[in-house]
Write a structure and sequence with these properties.
The chain has 490 residues and is of the alpha+beta class. It has helices at 14-25, 62-78, 99-111, 152-165, 209-216, 285-298, 357-368, 395-405, 411-421, 425-429, 448-458, 463-470, 479-488, and strands at 2-10, 30-33, 49-50, 83-91, 122-125, 141-150, 169-171, 176-182, 185-190, 195-203, 225-236, 244-248, 254-260, 264-268, 272-273, 310-319, 333-338, 346-351, 441-443, 446-447.
């Protein structure tokens, strides 16, 4: 069967889902295809921050930082359930960067993009302030500033959900095998045997963007993709408090140590040039050792590879700016439009970061506007993501109301549901008046109502989708509960 669409988006990461959402909200008929699960590659393997990128100031990426800081405010308002403020502690290392340089950078960071809801930066005496207690005694001076946390893979799922509710067709586990121009339309063929035509095509295949140009579209192109691997480790909680730490290393890279899933600390990232299939990416022993070494340089409590309870690695599809240092490669995005006279347009996405996905989508639609004249105007800057319509973006107040309205929910479960689903938690809970009415008890706090909601509303098709992308329950559930969940998909 052949369906006619205005826009075909190949790739279900944050950029593809964001573009599909934006386009659908403009009244276009949109199809998104993803070869695996939503956010199954780079978009679920980030450091999980909505941030301006403090270190990018050293590389004079002022436009990118300014745009990212503006987007930080927009996303904090659009999805207060999965995006929230996070304070960062930066211990000062005199021989790496002088204090005046850091202070100047933080002042610029405070004001470059406009800051309305987050507290500004300040100096801190680490030998007197509680945030200094986890650190070694030699660190006596530091700085504190604000950025935000994001549940990255849920951000992708919510963009896809919003796109679908605005009319987009979202198909996971569907690879675009090939596509070819037929005059002013694209004809695409998919791994499930289906076909579709579209007036425009967006190649948002992330680390596979060049491979899709080569093998899916058979189009010549110059190599502008730089693959850089970033790896993270998770260890039992290293320190008390809600603050995160940003640590400088002698190679001038920085490593984050972030409170994670209540009982853990997330540590990352590395920057390593990568060659090979992005599907095969994995952390190396050297990367694990590197991250442990940085932590042990700063914290009183030391760690070793034996302490790692989980790890992940992702491939960043960066635009190749010819930088010799993988850490210095631009995190800005490049949109490459190919539109021969009389031929259907192709827009390929290189680079980008989760913080700027919404603005990237707007820029993508600006590029495609001449070929999609019936598209409406911009709209996403003031629109909430599904579950994000919390009054005044007050998550604490929302959680309190949920607990009053559903007093039978255990406090930890109520908080997890509120964080994951926001106001959509009411759809998940339905008319339930007790835990027994939430359906099958898989074990711990996983119930049938949540599993079926994720299958029905968020394209979950395997236990892994639920355990590691729609949530991080994989860190918390017993082997027996995981096995029971896996049985649901057999």
């Amino acid at each position: 069967m052949t369906d006619g669409y205005d826009l075909l988006v190949v790739g279900g990461g944050i950029n593809g889902a964001g573009i599909a959402r934006d386009a659908a909200g403009r009244g276009l008929k949109v199809l998104l295809v993803e070869q695996g699960d939503l956010a199954s590659a780079t978009s679920s393997r980030s450091t999980k921050l909505i941030h301006g990128g403090l270190r990018y100031l050293e590389y004079y990426e002022f436009r990118l930082v300014r745009e990212a800081l503006k987007e930080r405010e927009i996303l904090l308002n659009a999805a207060p359930h999965i995006v929230w403020p996070l304070r960062f502690v930066l211990p000062h290392e005199r021989h790496l960067r002088p204090a005046w340089m850091i202070r100047l950078g933080l002042l610029l960071y405070d004001h470059l993009g406009g800051r309305h809801r987050l507290p500004g930066s300040r100096g801190v005496a680490l030998d007197r302030d509680p945030v200094g207690r986890p650190l070694k005694e030699s660190f006596r001076r530091g700085f504190v500033y604000s950025d935000c946390w994001v549940e990255d893979s849920r951000m992708v799922a919510l963009n896809a959900r919003d796109a679908a509710e605005r009319g987009a067709d979202i198909r996971t586990r569907t690879r675009c095998v090939s596509a070819a121009r037929e005059g002013d339309v694209w004809r695409a063929k998919f791994s499930d045997g289906g076909q579709a035509t579209a007036r425009a095509l967006v190649n948002a295949a992330g680390p596979w963007v060049a491979q899709f140009l080569d093998q899916g579209l058979h189009l010549p192109h110059r190599s502008v993709l730089r693959l850089v691997k970033g790896s993270h480790i998770v260890v039992p909680r290293l320190f008390e408090g809600d603050q995160a730490y940003i640590l400088q290393n002698d190679d001038r890279r920085i490593v984050f140590a972030i409170p994670y899933e209540r009982n853990f600390t997330l540590i990352g990232t590395t920057d390593v040039p990568y060659e090979g299939d992005p599907a095969d990416v994995a952390i190396s022993e050297e990367e694990t050792g590197y991250l442990c070494q940085v932590i042990n340089r700063y914290f009183r409590k030391s760690i070793s590879p034996a302490d790692v309870v989980w790890h992940y690695a992702g491939v960043r599809p960066l635009y190749d700016d010819a930088s010799a240092d993988a850490s210095a490669v631009t995190r800005d995005y490049v949109l490459d439009l190919a539109a021969p006279e009389g031929g259907a347009p192709l827009l390929s996405i290189f680079g980008g970061k989760i913080t700027t996905y919404r603005r990237l989508a707007e820029h993508a639609m600006e590029k495609l506007a001449p070929y999609l004249p019936k598209a409406g105007g911009t709209w996403t800057a003031s629109s909430r993501l599904p579950g994000g319509d919390i009054p005044d973006a007050d998550f604490a107040g929302f959680l309190a109301r949920l607990q009053v309205g559903r007093p039978w929910l255990p406090a930890d479960l109520a908080r997890r549901y509120a964080r994951a689903y926001g106001t959509r938690v009411e759809r998940l809970l339905g008319e339930a008046k007790s835990l027994a009415e939430l359906g099958r008890a898989y074990g711990e706090d996983l119930y049938g109502a949540e599993v079926e909601y994720l299958i029905d509303q968020e394209w979950a098709r395997s236990a892994e989708d639920i355990l590691w992308r729609r949530s991080k329950l994989g860190l918390h559930l017993s082997p027996a509960t995981k096995a029971a969940l896996a049985e649901r998909f057999r």
